[in-house]
Amino acid sequence: MFRLIIFFLLVLALGFGFAWIADRPGMISLVWEGTRYETSLMVALAAFVAVVVAIMVTWWIISLILRSPLLMRRFFRNRRRDRGYHALSQGLLAAGTGDAGRARRLARDSRKLLGSEPLVELLDVQTMMLEGNRQGARDKFEAMLDDDDTKLVALRGLYLEAEREGATEAARHYAEEAAAISAALPWAGNANLKYQATAGDWEGALRTLESMRSSGLVRKEDAARQRAVLLTAQAMTEEPAAPERAAKLARQAHDLAPDLVPAAVIAARALTRNNDLKRAARILEATWKRQPHPELADAYVKLRAGDSVSDRLKRAQRLVQLQPDHVDAKMALAEAAIDANQWSLARDAMKPVLASNPTQRACLLMADIEEGENNDLGRMRDWLSRAVRAPRDPAWTADGHVARHWLPISPVTGRIDAFEWKAPVGMIGMVPDLDLDDLGNSGNGDIPPPDTEENQDVETTVIAAGQETGPNDAASQHQKQATADTTHEAEKPADAISDEPADDVPPLERNVSEPEEVRETPPVFERPPDDPGIEPEEQEQKQGFRLF
Q1: Cβ atoms 297, 328 nearer than 8 A
Q2: How many domains does the chain have?
Q3: What is the pLDDT of residue 283?
Q4: Which helix (DSSP H) or strand (DSSP E) does residue 38 occupy?
Q5: Which of 10, 99, 234, 487 is deepest in the core (most CB within 10 A)?
């Protein structure tokens, strides 16, 4: 476009010049070797322009002839390069789709046409990985380390291979080297952060996190949250040896993330050691308002070791005032009331908890209430049996791993701030048929234990093996157990059964002392509770693959 404008301006200037000369006519006279030549000024200028154009055209033709070999070589080189890049792009697409054969063929073509281009090396190593040639891919990555253009790609490839093989030290080395070259690499920063946190290098992890935040790899909100987690982890590490420093770190973490429960608990515990109970209570209350949690309730209720049960009950009531509708507040009040033998208060606190799908902890608290208030073992067993089938309580869970206490990183993936307070994935069934009308009773009535198969089995075994029965007792016993399973009959003592059969005796009047044929039932091997069952690999070998 710029050249076109320049050409247009030159033509315009030339036309303007000829028009100006045409308005001012003149003659040009030239004497050469005695001959006089005369012409008008317009003709002379036109001849001059024509000569200049002819010279330029002649020079262009001569230069074209002289440069033709170079131009031909450039033409074929560009054509070869275009073919090579076309093969390279198609090879990368083939590698992306997983077509190893086509990718290998196009990789050879692109290398033949382009030589050792960085993208050709990348296609070659990707093809090796598709073909399963891991050793060849590692060798290729190591060779690519010598080229500055491919060094970062090679470091990432070697890092991924080391991660796949579980070579943690090698993977950490490659990640650190890549981060030293370019601090703006997300994978290198995250890898270094993970390895430093896994190794307990909290200071190094904090420096890496700050570098990632300044580079824009982590948002400010996420960086503040992760920094609070790392400070909490550092406080946990230093709490036994340096409680004052641990308190300082935990308070910093609490300021960054007021809803982080472990930070508040550690800060309160460290402040309690220094007899700063008011500040510890304020920290726990601030976190409790944002994120109620059983650990907060336990730390707040037991804030001072020498307090009486009535003082702890008052603190539990304070938690209910701050979160009147939360389940953890109600159960904290119930626990404090149980310790203070305030049974009616404990029942009242548990009523809203039991109204909506109570968990195992709620059922166990009700069992404690029934046992402690009236020593009602029947109701206690009823609540214990319900606790077995009740949904599990929330726990610290990260990537499918359930931990007893909070951890700063996931033991499965090494991810920071991975633990969440939630119910584990494997939930136990709902509690069936809760009679809420009887929950507020004092427990004077007798509630029979639940009629489960386990209780039937136990009762049958006791009757069968308790004593040697006489004829009449055995007949009545047999009438009561006419619908029982035949395996219960096989479990009777051998001395209570005769050796010969008595076919003429009716089934309900048969005397146990008379002869009876005993069938040997094969033993039934039930799976123990701690048996994990069939291994997945064995199950796949027996059943094969199921697509749907």
Answers
A1: yes
A2: 1
A3: 94
A4: strand 35-40
A5: 234
First to last CA, the chain: 63
Q: Alpha-carbon distance 363 to 387, whole Å?
A: 5
189 found inside a domain: no
Task: Pull the structure tokens for residue 509.
Answer: 């009047």
The model carries a pTM of 0.65
Rounded to 10°, the helix 360-374/343-354 angle is: 150
Rounded to 5°, the CA angle 277-327-320 comes to 40
Long-range contacts from 332-340, C-beta under 8 angstroms, 24+ separation:
332/294, 332/297, 332/298, 332/301, 334/365, 334/369, 335/301, 335/365, 336/301, 336/309, 336/312, 337/313, 338/365, 338/368, 338/369, 338/372, 339/309, 339/312, 339/313, 340/309, 340/310, 340/312, 340/313
- Compute the distance between CA of residue 130 and CA of residue 107 in angstroms, rounded to an integer: 13
Cα–Cα dist 109/85, whole Å = 10
CA distance 294 to 292: 7
Q: Strand 27-32 to strand 395-398: parallel, antiparallel, or no bridges (unpaired)?
A: unpaired
- For the chain, 548 residues long, the average pLDDT of each consecutive 10-residue run is 85 82 80 82 83 92 89 89 92 92 92 88 92 91 91 94 91 93 91 93 94 90 95 92 89 94 93 88 94 94 89 94 93 94 93 90 94 90 93 93 93 92 67 42 40 40 37 39 38 38 38 42 45 46 35
- Packing angle, helices 277-290 and 261-273, rounded to 10: 170
Q: Residue 305 is encoded by which pair of tokens?
A: 């070791």
Structural domain harbouring 19? 8-81
The H helix count followed by the E strand count for the chain is 23, 5
For Cα atoms 432, 438, 439, give the angle at the middle one, nearest 5 degrees.
Answer: 80
CB atoms within 10 A of CB 400: 10
The answer to whether residue 430 sits within a structural domain is no
- Residue 426: predicted pLDDT: 59
292: tokens are 């109620």
35 found inside a domain:
yes
Q: Where are the beta strands (DSSP E) in 52-148?
A: none
Q: What are phi and psi of 434, to 5 degrees?
A: -80, 120
Q: Which residues partner with 420 through β-bridges? A: 397
Range 228-245 burial, b when 16+ CB lie within 10 A, else e: bbbbbbbbbebbeeebee
Residue 292 in any domain: the answer is no
Strands 27-32 and 35-40: antiparallel
Q: In whole angstroms, what is the distance from residue 497 CA to residue 400 CA?
A: 54
Whether the CB-CB separation of 13 and 6 falls below 8 Å is answered with: no
Q: Quickly list H helices, 115-148.
A: 118-131, 134-144
C-alpha 323/C-alpha 485 separation (Å) is: 53
The whole-number pLDDT of residue 548 equals: 28
Q: What is the pLDDT of residue 446?
A: 39
Residue type at position 409: I
Query: Closest Cα to residue 463, out of 448, 453, 478?
Result: 478
